[in-house]
Structure formats: structure tokens, C-alpha cells
Amino acid sequence: MKENFDLHILKNFSKGKYSYNDYLSVKEWFDNVKDFPGFKEELSVEWDEINRKESDEGKSLDHIFEKIHYKILLEDNKKERSFNFYKLYRQAAAVLLIPVFAFLLYYLVRPDNNNLLNSGWVEINAPEGARVEFFLPDSSSGWLNSGSKLKFPAVFEQNREVQLQGEAYFEVKHLANSDFTVDVPDFDVKVLGTKFNVLSYAADSQTEVVLAEGKVEISGKAGKFNHTMTPGKRAIFNRETRVLNVEEVDAEMFSAWKDGFLVIDNESLEQVLSRIERWYNAEIIVEDETLKSYRFKATFKDEPLEEVLRLIALTTPIKYSIDKREFDANGILKKKIVHMTLKNN
Amino acid sequence: MKVVKTYTEAELISGIRKDNHDSFQKIFERYSQPLYRFSLSYLKSKEAAEDVVQEVFTKVWANRKELKTNTSFQSYIFTIAFNSVRKYFNKLSKVNGIKHEILLEFSREATNFDNRNNFQLLLDKLDKLIEEMPDKRKQVFIKKKIEEKSLKEIAEELSITPKTVEYHITEAMKFLKKEFEELSVKGLIFFYLFIDK
């Protein structure tokens, strides 16, 4: 049963003179505005009346204005910050442009164009968190993994030689009478025509080569060893013991990173984390030494860092937390920092 | 010579549209008091009325690009204010319902309680009596009766035992009962004031 809108009740209510039943009526009108058309109109009339009356009594509402103003300024500030993000993107784009410039440089210094720069070296960088495809002057190609650097001469000599820091996958074009050598700190990888992966980050404790196709020859820097690899093999050089070990592997797995896969195959947490750090441009701090020996098996494709960590934590007694990211003095976001600890500890 | 320029409302509105904070402040000075009084007459709560003022002007600024200079700003602000008042009225009605129950508990003798037209007076008296309680008791009472928290929750929040919480509630109810009975005997609320209509 609905009561009708009663102007008398409403007027008395606004003056503070009302019964509980009156209150319930007003509540009903507010709840179902559409069913009581006179109600909103009456309030509108009252609003206009209040505005007509010039009244200077009443408490100061300055503090409310201050609050609103504060919020507005905060909002403006945020907008300026998002402008900084734009700047950041511009800087990130500039980093990504480096490889493009590298190609440009190559085209500019092609032998028939310009002989002056013949002796120059070209460098390609893949920043942390990014992977870059590259093409060399001899139409060999490949991929450069996060945080890696590849140097090669603008014009190859009789024998082709490139220098690598980090990890790269090569598809080398076979040329008659021309060797192709990848130079890493621990050894040279000499190839004919072939597909292979080289992993040699300065921070890691080992350097490795995985051969997918063809034939490569690994020769230690001081002539300490000389090993010819066959496909499906993985050669690991331990930097501490300075010993080369060769094992049989599924070679494809070791170059899956170029297609965006992060493959972890029975590796220790320590190894895994250094790869995750490069892959996502993050810093991971392990607060329990014992954790480092846990071993993992997993494959990720296009997962964000948070998801990878969540899945790792799901299957291990590991807890993690991600620090709030901060800006450095130039307004650029710093690396993500992750802390890992042992659960129930 | 100092020239004091008075702005027309249309000038102020177009100023706000151009992100001018001074224009916004002038509009606030012009409409905040009426808005506060209007809200207070329906909400019966100073805090809620202030919240309405804040909400309405925050919206005015947020939607400043859509402000029109050719229509009445006064009726524009009413539309926002009306919805805001409605929202807060609904919010408050829950608390009011609880207070009503408390009042009902102390006014069994009063006939036709629901139709006496001084509900506001009773609410104000109840608020005043709650305010008079010792600090701890007041806290416990508000948490239990108004915020409807459990004994255990309150005990944890105030770091006291559930037994102590119970004690405070019992004492608070005793206090209110006594006060309301006194008023009733004096006829202040349940007789004299109810009759005056």
C-alpha cells in the first residue's frame, strides 16, 4: 500500500518536526522518486527559495573547499606524472631504435657505398626485458636475448667474426671458404653453416653452446681444448673448474626463448632467477640461501612476471613480495625488485 | 584606483570550463551555504550535509567541460545535489533504524509512539545521552548498537575482555532506561511534547 506524497509532512520534516511514521514516508519518497512526481519538484522549489534568501548566518565551509581543492591539485599532479610516463615511453622507444640504427648504419656503410667506414664495428643491444632479431651483412640472422650485445664488423673480411656478450641464437649462412666465428670470453665457436645457441653472460658461472643443426667447433682461448660438436648436443664450460662437459639435449628447447618461451628444465632456483631477472628486467633478492638449491621444471609463454612468481610459489615453499616501483632522478621507473623467502619461517 | 569587478555567473562558468580555480572558488562561495542548509534540512546530520557539499562540488569540477553557460547553473546543481542527498539519506536511514529500535525499547509505556511528531527530538536526546556516557562505555555502546559489531570484535578492537564489553552494554542500557523514564515521568517527551500537535 502506497501513501501519497504529502507536502505538509515534507515541510515539517525539513523543519525537524516529524514522527517516525513521517520519517518512513520521506524515506519512501527518497527511495522511489519516480512514484512520487511532486516530491522532487517540491525539493526543487525549496532549493530555489533557499537560494533567493540572502542569508549570511551559517558556519564557514572553507574547510570543505580546501579539501576539494586539494583533491583537484592532486589530480592535476597525477596528470603531469602520466605526462612523464609518455617521456619514459619515448626513452624506451629510443632504446628499441638502437637495432634499427644498427641496420641503417650497415646499409650506409655497405662497401659499394662508402669505403671510409669499412673498418668500423656495428653493435646491437637487446635491453633487459626485450629480445631482438638481427640480420648480418652476410645474410646470416638470429636473435639476441635480453641484456645481450652483439658486435660485428660493418663489412666482413674473408672470415666472418662476431663478438657476443650474453645469449644469442644464430642461423649462419654457409659461404664457401669463409668461416664464421662467434667470439665469447671463454672460447671461440667456429662454424660452417649451422643453427646454434650460445649463452655467455658475464654474471653467470658457465658458458654454453647448444647445436641444433650442422657442425661447430669450440676452441678454448688458450688452446686448452678443442671440441667438435654434433647436433643435439650441449657443451657447458664451467668457469670455475674450467672444464668442458658435453651432454645430449633437446636442442630446440634451448632456443625456444627467441619465440617468447621461457623454458626451465630442472634448473636450480639460482640459475632460474638470473634468467627471470634478465627476461623481465627485474632484480630478485633471495633472502634464504637454502632456497637457491631448489630445482624447477616449467615453461612459460608470454606470462607477466607476477604470474611466473605466483606459479613458482604455488609449487614450492617460497614466499615472495614485490616492492613498489620507484622513479629515479630522471623520472624513469627503476627495476622491479622482488624479495623471496622461505615459507613458514 | 582599485576596480572591483563582479563576475556574472556565465563568466564564472566559462572560467571553470577553462580550468580556472578562482572562478570555481567564487561559484563555491555562492552556492555552498544554500547547498549545506538544503542538505541539512533533510539529512539532519552536519557531517552528511558537509559530505554532500563536497561531493556536489567535486562533481561540478570533474564535469566542468560539460557545463553550459546558457542554462541555469542553479538548476544544474540541484540535479546533482538531489541525487547526492538521496544517496546520503539512504546511508543514514540504516543508522536511524537502529536508533529507532533503541528508542522503542525505552518507550513501551508511550502509546502511539510511531505517530508522535517529535521523532527528531527523541533522536537528538538519544545522541545527547550517548554523548554523556563515559568514554569507554560510549565507544562500546556505539560499536555494539549502532555499528552492530559482535562482542568478540569489540573486545579485540578495544583490547578488553568480552565480559567487560557486556558489562558496559548493560550499564549503558540501564543509564538510558533511567534517563528516558525520568523524562517520561516529567512528561517531557512521552506526554507533554507528544501532545503539542
Automatic annotation (TrEMBL), chain A:
One Gene Ontology term of the molecular function aspect: sigma factor antagonist activity
Keyword vocabulary terms for this entry: Membrane, Transmembrane, Transmembrane helix
Positions of transmembrane segments: 88-109
All copies of domain Protein FecR C-terminal, residue ranges: 262-326
Coiled coil: none
Positions of the FecR protein domain: 124-217
Keyword Membrane set for record: yes
Membrane found in the keyword field: yes
Annotated protein name in UniProt: DUF4974 domain-containing protein
Species of provenance: Maribellus comscasis
From TrEMBL, chain B:
Every RNA polymerase sigma factor 70 region 4 type domain range: 124-176
Family indicated by similarity: Belongs to the sigma-70 factor family. ECF subfamily.
InterPro entries (alphabetical): RNA_pol_sigma-70-like, RNA_pol_sigma-70_dom, RNA_pol_sigma70_bacteroid, RNA_pol_sigma70_r2, RNA_pol_sigma70_r4_t2, RNA_pol_sigma_r2, RNA_pol_sigma_r3/r4-like, WH-like_DNA-bd_sf
Keyword Transcription regulation part of the UniProt annotation: yes
Species assigned in the record: Maribellus comscasis
Coiled-coil portions: none
GO molecular function: DNA binding; sigma factor activity
NCBIfam families cross-referenced by the UniProt entry: Sig70_bacteroi1, sigma70-ECF
PANTHER family: RNA POLYMERASE ECF-TYPE SIGMA FACTO (PTHR43133), RNA POLYMERASE SIGMA-70 FACTOR ECF SUBFAMILY (PTHR43133:SF46)
One annotated GO biological process: DNA-templated transcription initiation
Protein name stated in the entry: RNA polymerase sigma-70 factor
